What does this fold into?
Amino acid sequence: MAWCPKCKSEYVEGIKTCADCKCDLVDSLEETKKMTAWEEEIALRALKLQQEELQKEQNQLDIEFPDEMKIDLPESVDEEIIGDALEQMMDSEEFAFDEEEERPKHVMPYINNEEKALEHKASAHSLTVIGFIGLVAIILLFFDVLPIHLPTMNKILICGVMGALFGLFFVMGLVSARKYKILAKKAKKENNLTKEIKNWCMASFSPERIDAGADLENEPDELKYFRRFDKMKELIQNQFMYLDEGYLDRLIDEIYPDIFGEE
It folds into this structure.
């Protein structure tokens, strides 16, 4: 008798191909259960990795898995052969991937301390003015100075809720004013550092020095920019250490046109 390895249909002797699946018949279904050496090694490797993951979870959670979830592997498994098989599998076209498709890192634009200080200054001014005017209006309403007549309970409820809200605005304004003073001091130091770095760059950098050793004559403008950017970044980091990455990127963007005469 002959059997189809896919649909498991039984055929009489003399028939070589399954009428439904169009595949070659085998003498016994036991043959379909056999794996190639490569497939067997991959399967064993996958089972071992699964066992390691289960063991990690057991150690972390301090729990014991049922016996049916535990996997015992043959002691004769050759780790080197498994590693080679996995490398062959990952090198195949099925698992190939392009490094350029890697998701780019999202870099937030750098906001210097001077800009942060100005934002807090504007917030402090707005919140304190709104909070102060609101509190004055609530006091006038509570003492019936304003020509708005409300039942006593409604007036107390409105004055309490709105008073708390405007009081919160006023407090937030004071907090923003305090942050503004702190950031203003930091901004002064940062501006001095920026001025020092820019002066050093303008005295040390030249188009010839930045492009030295790099054949950029036939390269597109975009590629020229990135290569010059990386070179300038390296030189500045060698001279001024421990600079913030975002701060340095913004600084180079500002001085690049001054050196190369282009945007």
Observations:
- Confidence is low (pLDDT under 50) at residues 73-77, 94-104.
